[in-house]
Amino acid sequence: MEQWPDRWQGVSNVHCSGYVWIEPAPVIQMGLNISINCHSTVNCQMAKLYMMLNNTHIEDKLLTTINKTTVQLQLHDFRKPYSIVLCYAKCPSKAADMIVCGTQFFAGHPPDSPTNLTCVIYEHSDHLTCAWDAGKYTYISTNYILYLKSLQTGEEKAFPSNAAINISLSKLQGGKLYSIWVQAKNDLGTAHSDHLQVNLEDLVIPATPVITNVETTDSSAPRTILHWKKQTSMENVYCEERYKALADQTWHMKEWDINVTKGPNREYSLESNTEYEFQVRCRLILAKSYWSGWSAPFIYTTPEAAPSKILDVWRVMGPVYTNGSQEVMVLIKPLAPKDARGRILGYTVFHESRGEMVNLCNTSDTQCKVLVSPAMRTVHVTAYNSKGSSMPASITVTQEHSNFNDFLSPTNMQISHDDHRGVSVKWELPKYIGRSVLWFIVEWIFAAQHNQQHDFLWKKVPSQDTFTYIEGDLTEGIHMNISVYAVYQDGISKPCPGQLYLVDLDNDGDVFWGIGTGAIILSIVFLTLIFKKSLRKRYRFLFIPPPPLVSRICLSLRKP
């Protein structure tokens, strides 16, 4: 009788009545074919042999009978890293099956040649620290040995390790010049790294510098200054700084050659009211020297500054009173954080009279209702924070009716639906235009329902664009009034208007259409189309020109 192999750890010792072996070996390269053999010495002439592989019973038809006491299991392209096999004998005269024997076996890879061998000495440390990339995972026990051979004395020393290793400098008495390499070895093979020729003095990594302060100058052109100190006592040190806005991913780098106790006071031109992260690191001025770690992050928020951008503003004209004055709702788009450069405290609406600023409204809201006189052509709007105000935005609020002929409206408005972007609004530049358009304003109003108040929405479109999207989900029964204005240096055009409806016809499709003010004839056309599905299905979008003296209108149908 043989005893269970001692190397089978975690399993109690058992007595074997035979033996089990693996061919070609108990450790194989992953993907090879193997044979598991069982030879029984059980005292039973009619014994039937069977196997359990990883707690799974192996069907009899998979076993090959070599003779009365030996069976074999062949496995192809075997890739399980660790396996246990047990062989049993079923004897008719015995109530319980008898264990013949068992074994464990492994599948893995030979080691790769270690790469990226690096060895460093941290300043103020008395150890050489080496690390390397072992390559692909082997799945089997693999041993690594770091070798150091003095190029001055020829002495060679070996240091076993399976990962990074720290070697006391007191063990390296063979001078400063060494050849270093790593050997990897397991049951499937041996590999070596490239040899690394080093001078121990060149392996020193300077101590990590420390950022002491960040400040910003209080001037018309603020500059942010970074203060830091190097912690190394070494000469010929090369350092670099990096910084980024905390919300960004991209770092900005600055490099320095320093030989002073205190690092340079680098000045940066940064965005106001923004959180930044700063770090510094150093290395020796050598082609292959190693960087220190980055210093601990220093988080700094730059001070506020006056808003840098002119506001986008618009107006909605209200009722005209008997004295000629008119109510105007001034609408304001909030500035983006990078343009606001601080917390916006409020907005000021004013006009100029004889060179003086006359305040009309101070508000923290993004709209303000003011009363303007017939002589008041333009109002101005500024945003302000703790550091100052933005440059004023100007908007025309009154102009003579005949004056509109000098400020031509956009034409040929087309309204359509985009499943991904929302409502598409397109138009054309005014023909025979004699002055430059500064920009366009697209205004849309969700028509009031059940005595609810109108909801005014708008956006500014650059003069080079003649289209935009009104984004958002549209629901059945929606009714929108859409207008496009051309804004000039000293006036605003009349609107190019349209209407948009979304109607569900018998759950068989949606219908979009736009109609101009007063286009009653086209409304009749549309109602006719509603009740004629065959006509409706023939068109995706249908644009109908307006009758004389009526603004350009658009009619569009969408197939179900």
TrEMBL record:
<feature type="domain" description="Fibronectin type-III">
    <location>
        <begin position="409"/>
        <end position="506"/>
    </location>
</feature>
<dbReference type="InterPro" id="IPR013783">
    <property type="entry name" value="Ig-like_fold"/>
</dbReference>
<dbReference type="InterPro" id="IPR003529">
    <property type="entry name" value="Hematopoietin_rcpt_Gp130_CS"/>
</dbReference>
<protein>
    <recommendedName>
        <fullName>Leptin receptor</fullName>
    </recommendedName>
</protein>
<dbReference type="InterPro" id="IPR003961">
    <property type="entry name" value="FN3_dom"/>
</dbReference>
<keyword id="KW-0812">Transmembrane</keyword>
<dbReference type="GO" id="GO:0004896">
    <property type="term" value="F:cytokine receptor activity"/>
</dbReference>
<keyword id="KW-1133">Transmembrane helix</keyword>
<comment type="similarity">
    <text>Belongs to the type I cytokine receptor family. Type 2 subfamily.</text>
</comment>
<keyword id="KW-0732">Signal</keyword>
<keyword id="KW-0325">Glycoprotein</keyword>
<keyword id="KW-0677">Repeat</keyword>
<dbReference type="InterPro" id="IPR003531">
    <property type="entry name" value="Hempt_rcpt_S_F1_CS"/>
</dbReference>
<feature type="transmembrane region" description="Helical">
    <location>
        <begin position="511"/>
        <end position="531"/>
    </location>
</feature>
<dbReference type="InterPro" id="IPR052672">
    <property type="entry name" value="Type1_Cytokine_Rcpt_Type2"/>
</dbReference>
<keyword id="KW-1015">Disulfide bond</keyword>
<dbReference type="InterPro" id="IPR036116">
    <property type="entry name" value="FN3_sf"/>
</dbReference>
<comment type="subunit">
    <text>Present as a mixture of monomers and dimers. The phosphorylated receptor binds a number of SH2 domain-containing proteins such as JAK2, STAT3, PTPN11, and SOCS3. Interaction with SOCS3 inhibits JAK/STAT signaling and MAPK cascade.</text>
</comment>
<dbReference type="GO" id="GO:0016323">
    <property type="term" value="C:basolateral plasma membrane"/>
</dbReference>
<feature type="domain" description="Fibronectin type-III">
    <location>
        <begin position="113"/>
        <end position="207"/>
    </location>
</feature>
<feature type="domain" description="Fibronectin type-III">
    <location>
        <begin position="210"/>
        <end position="305"/>
    </location>
</feature>
<keyword id="KW-0675">Receptor</keyword>
<keyword id="KW-0472">Membrane</keyword>
